[in-house]
């Protein structure tokens, strides 16, 4: 898909691992802005590109675009003759019912198999507009590392016994943890949760002045040293605009109760 003269526009977060490959082919990768105050929707103003890379549901924001916003994106792409690449590896993982094109899927997120590195692309291309792009995808695969034979051979049995709703059926648990964390974390001085609409992530912004640090990385190191809590700094997703951390919501509630207790002690010592 990357060819000299093309450019791809992607979300300002998360950080992509494909920048180096795109750079080697002369492809320009630019970032579009997200609106944190509006459920992380895409700011479509002044957006120009050959390809629009859309992650929905999103990591690390946990956002799930509404049907209306998805239609806005599609309308914009149609008007500007831009191909949408829809990254949907968190398919079915929403807290509600939400209403492509190239659709991406991945074992890691759909069936909770971290680092198995098994993914796929589904082309909706009845008019054969993406023939060259399909060939480019085959070519790119030659540069990628594959999962081991044991993992690959297990895939047919997994797909036979499980369904694409495996993750969705566990969303009630994630939602309960998500709501509990927001209720507790928003009461801690210096923290502000950005509610998610899906996935198993929660984004929490931090006030650097309150915690007397210069960055979220410094905050994470300080928290690890004093309370033995490991959090992923939000800036590690490729932007300095948002200072905070990303959390998973898949653990049992007792884990979060203890973590929140440690966070409160951490704040008391400031």
UniProtKB/TrEMBL annotation:
**Residues of the signal peptide:** none
What is the superkingdom listed in this entry's lineage?
Eukaryota
State the SUPFAM superfamilies in the record.
Answer: PLP-dependent transferases
Q: Which GO terms describe its biological process?
A: L-tyrosine catabolic process
**Where does the record place the Aminotransferase class I/classII large domain?**
20-101, 141-239
Q: Which InterPro entries match?
A: Aminotransferase_I/II_large, PyrdxlP-dep_Trfase, PyrdxlP-dep_Trfase_major, PyrdxlP-dep_Trfase_small
Keywords for the protein's UniProt record, in alphabetical order: Aminotransferase, Transferase
Q: Name one GO molecular function term.
A: pyridoxal phosphate binding
Protein name, entry field: Chromosome undetermined scaffold_1, whole genome shotgun sequence
Source taxonomy: Eukaryota, Sar, Alveolata, Ciliophora, Intramacronucleata
């Amino acid at each position: 898909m990357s060819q000299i003269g093309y450019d791809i526009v992607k979300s300002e977060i998360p950080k992509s691992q494909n920048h180096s490959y795109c750079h080697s082919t002369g492809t320009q990768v630019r970032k579009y802005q997200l609106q944190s105050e509006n459920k992380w929707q895409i700011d479509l103003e002044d957006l120009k590109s050959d390809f629009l890379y859309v992650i929905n549901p999103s990591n690390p924001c946990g956002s799930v675009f509404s049907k209306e916003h998805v239609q806005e994106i599609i309308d914009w792409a149609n008007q500007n003759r831009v191909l949408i690449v829809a990254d949907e590896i968190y398919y079915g993982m929403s807290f509600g019912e939400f209403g492509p094109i190239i659709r991406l899927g991945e074992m890691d997120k759909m069936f909770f198999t971290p680092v198995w590195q098994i993914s796929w692309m589904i082309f909706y291309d009845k008019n054969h507009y993406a023939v060259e792009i399909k060939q480019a995808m085959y070519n790119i695969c030659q540069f990628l590392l594959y999962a081991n034979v044991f993992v690959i051979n297990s895939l047919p049995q997994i797909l036979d016994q499980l369904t694409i709703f495996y993750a969705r059926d566990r969303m009630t648990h994630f939602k309960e943890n998500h709501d509990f964390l927001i209720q507790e974390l928003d009461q801690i001085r210096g923290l502000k949760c950005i509610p998610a609409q899906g996935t198993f992530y929660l984004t929490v912004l931090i006030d650097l002045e309150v915690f007397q640090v210069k960055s979220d990385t410094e905050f994470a190191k300080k928290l690890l040293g004093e309370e033995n809590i490991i959090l992923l700094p939000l800036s590690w997703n490729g932007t300095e605009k948002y200072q905070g951390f990303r959390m998973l919501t898949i653990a049992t509630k007792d884990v979060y109760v203890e973590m929140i207790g440690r966070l409160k002690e951490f704040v008391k010592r400031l």
